[in-house]
Amino acid sequence: MKQVTILSGKGGTGKTTITGCFAALTEEPVLADCDVDASNLHLILSPRIKETMEFRGLKLADIDSEKCTRCGLCMQLCRFDAIHDYSVDPIHCEGCKVCVANCPVDAISFKERVCGHAYISDTEYGPMSHARLTPGMENSGKLVTLVRQNAAKLAEETGRGLVLVDGPPGIGCPVIASLSNVDAAVAVVEPTLSGIHDLRRALQLLEHFEVTPSVIINKYDINMENTASIRGFCGEHGIPTLGMIPFDESVTRAMVQAKPVVVYSPGSPASLAMREAWIEFSSFLGL
Amino acid sequence: MKLVIASGKGGTGKTSIAVNLALSVGASQVLDCDVEEPNVHIFLKPENPRRRPVELLVPEIDEGRCIHCRRCAEFCQYNALFVAGEVAMVFPELCHSCGGCKLVCPEEAITEKPRQVGAVTVAESHGMGLIYGELNVGEALAVPVVSAVKKHAEEEGLVILDAAPGSACPLVETVHGADFCLMVTEPTPFGLHDLQVATEVVKQLGVPIGVVVNFAGVGDQGVYRFCEREGIPVIMEIPYDRRIAELYSRGIPFSAEMTEWRGRFRELLDTVEEMTR
Question: What is the DSSP string of B39-103?
Fold first, then answer.
C-alpha cells in the first residue's frame, strides 16, 4: 500500500480539486481528508457515511465554585492564562492538568470533551476517511492521525493500493500529522509570489521529515514568469514537476455541481492537464 | 480598533484585503498572525526589520537526580516525556510548556530551558507598524507564535490582524479580544462550507462579523443565502478580475494601481466602524 499527501503550504491553491480528480482517475483508491477544520473533499466526492466515531481530544479543567476557596494558586500556575475569576475559560485551557493536580482542596475536575467526529464513508470512487473538528477546538493534529489510521485500515481491509491524503494548509501540527509515514507528497502551488514563498516552506517541511517531494503548478498561466521560476527552482533541487494545470472556469462550475472536474467536464483544458498530471504522478509513484 | 481578517478557506484573499485596506485607510499597524505561512511582508515591504526569537520553556532532566519514578511522564498530557527503566527522555516538539512535569518531580530533577519555536519580526512599512510571526519549519504549535505577534498590538488606532485559514486554535487565538472580524470568502461551495465553520468560532467568541465576497461572479448563490439567513452583512464584493489576480501574483496590492478601490476600502472601514459603535 502506498500513501501520498497532497499539500500546499498556502491555502486555496487547489489541493482538494486535484485530490478529487486523482480519486476519480485512480483505479482503486482510498481517500483521506486531513483538512479536518476546513474540510472540502466531501463536497465533490459526496460520501455516504457508514460509521461515525466520537473524537475526544484533550480534557478540560472545571472548577467547582462550591469547593473553591479562592486561594488563587491555579491562576498563578496556569501558563495559558485560562483561569479568570476562579473559572476556567474553555477556549484557552490546553488540558495540561496543572491546576487539577495542584488545587489544595481538590476543587478542580478534569473532564473529557468531544472535540469532533471521524467518519468512515463510501464514495463512488472508493472508501473515504474524513472528520470534522468541532469549530475552535485544539488537537486537530490528533484528529488527523485518527483519519490517517482509519484510512490505512480501510486500505488493508479492501486490499486497495493507494491512499490519497488531502492535506491541510500551513506547516503546523495538522500538516505534520498528515505527513507521517507517507511514501511521497505533492505540493500544489499557484505561480504567485506568496505561493512561491509558502511552497518553499512546505518543501523545507518535507525535507525536514524526509518525505519525497513533487510539485504541481495550478493556474500556471496566471503568471508565466513565476511559473518558469518555480520550474527552475524545482529543477535545481531535483524535484519533479508532475503537471501544470491552466486557469479554467470549468473547475468552479464542477465544484458547484459537486463533482471532480475530470468527471463533470472531461474535455476541458483543466481536465486534460489533470489527466497528464495523473499519468506523471502514477509513474512517479511507480504504480 | 482591532480588526481581524479571517476566512476559513485558504486562498480567498485575506492577505490581499488586509493589505489593501491598511494602505487605503492608513492603519496604524498590520499584524500577520498566519505564522505558518505569513505573506503580508511580501506585499508591504518591511523597513528596518527587527527579528526576535519566540521561545517556549521545555523541561531538561538532570540524569544525576532522576530516580526514574515516571511521575513526569504519567503527568504529561502531551506525551512529551518518556521514562522506561533507567532512561528518561524529553520530546521538546510535543511540549506545550505547561510546567507540570517540574511541579510533580519529587527529586527536583527537572529544570526548564528556553527553546526557540519561531520568530516575530517588527518593522515599518508605508508609515505603519508591520509585525509578522514565523513558525519554525518542523514545529507543531502555532499558537505561541500568534500570541507573541499579538503582544505588539497597540491599544489605540486601527490594528489589522491577518488570520490563518481554518477554524482551529490559531484562528481562536487571533480573534480573541478583537472588535470586529471580516470574513473573506469566495462564492463557491468550498468557500461557503469553510465560512460556516469559521463563523461558528467567531460567534462563540462574541466578535461581530461582516463578509467580503471575493471573486464575485464565479460559483453560486450559497454564500449570499447563508449571510442573509444568519443576518451577516455582505459589506463588500470584489469581482473576479484577471488584472487583480496578476497584480497579486507579482506581490503588488491592487489598490496601488487600481486607485478607484481606495475609496471603496475607506467606505468598508466606515461601515465596520458604524457596526462596532
Answer: -HHHHS--EEEEEEEEEEEEEEE-TTT-----HHHHH-TT--EEEETTEEEE-GGG-----HHHH
